[in-house]
Amino acid sequence: MDNISKEFPLVSKKGAPVPPPSRGPPTTSYHQKGLFINASTLRGYSCVCTATRDLWDKLFDEGYRADVTISTDNGGSIYAHASVLGMASQVMKGMLKQAKGRGQQRSISIHGVPHNAVRVFIRLLYSSCYEKEEMEDYVLHLLVLSHVFVVPALKQICIQQLEHGFLTSENVVDIFQLALLCDAPRLSLICHRMILKNFQEISITEGWKVMKKSHPALEKELLVSLADEENMRRERIRKSNERRIYFQLYEAMEALVHICRDGCQTIGPHDKDFQDNQAPCNYSACKGLEMIVRHFASCKLRVPGGCIHCKRMWQLLELHSRLCVDSEACRVPLCMNFKERTKKQSKKDEIRWRILVKNILKTKSIGGSPFFSSAFSMSS
């Protein structure tokens, strides 16, 4: 046996053939220049190799033993195989069952789209491949064909192509109408948003003028959507302005407590000694509030309604009292007085103040504030 093994190295000692040396899994290049499948170039591994796809392409190109003739616009003809068409599209299978012809040769018609677009479409049914230039030229026609003949994979490829870089101000109205007809909701939504965003530019295009004549109801719907979008934009601006005001009021309340409790720069409680080298104030509203406090202290028309600046100070003091948790320990002037005054206010004024306090606290989200946490629970 040893002599046999030396003479025949492919035979093991047990008499079984020795396997060839391992070189890893067999590799096949599936990349073919210019061809795409499922909207991406053919790279890596695939369950269908390049040779198989080339075979299907060759079967279509040469029309070997083709039994179906497809009539297109301008007298064009495309030869195909009923078995392939029927398996790729249930709609075509139904058409082929009703098709008439001599012997086993049958004929169907596909009109309304260019001959080359139909050819690209039929080729896709064979090998699922297309050329980039063909897709760019006939993507709209292929979308219609894939919808009419119910070919979901091709329809998805067309939608992806249209969504990524194909939409322009000139064609978006046409594609929007096509998306509605072909039941492509995502594409129609993207077109709809683009039309609303660039309405001034799109409304003067030829596509919009044609739609206005042929589909006035659709134009009306778009105009209603535009009005709704504008109202929503104004509402967002209004709420944003409100939130900014509530935020500023909260900062003013913080600065007021800071001034009256700790003192700031050159103003504060009588028992506070100021230092020339003290650190800058961290409260953004402090500087403006200091000016109002100084004016309030020296104004001769300090009664409510006598001076607009003093009136604003009275409102800030009342707002603070409604936010303050402990008026007895609070060092803000008149805090306790305003607490007592609120008990005598009308129900209408009380509701108005409660809503203001609630909005301020919600805008700032200050549930953990030592001064205002209880006020939040009371106003909820």
Automatic annotation (TrEMBL):
Keywords: Metal-binding, Ubl conjugation pathway, Zinc, Zinc-finger. It comes from Populus euphratica. One of its GO terms (molecular function) is zinc ion binding. Residues 1-30 are annotated as: Disordered. Pathway: Protein modification; protein ubiquitination. Residues 66-134 form the BTB domain. The lineage of its organism: Eukaryota, Viridiplantae, Streptophyta, Embryophyta, Tracheophyta. Residues 240-338 form the TAZ-type domain. The keyword Disulfide bond does not apply. This is BTB/POZ and TAZ domain-containing protein 4. PANTHER family: BTB/POZ AND TAZ DOMAIN-CONTAINING PROTEIN 3-RELATED, BTB_POZ AND TAZ DOMAIN-CONTAINING PROTEIN 4. InterPro entries: BT1/2/3/4/5, BTB/POZ_dom, SKP1/BTB/POZ_sf, TAZ_dom_sf, Znf_TAZ. One of its GO terms (biological process) is regulation of DNA-templated transcription.
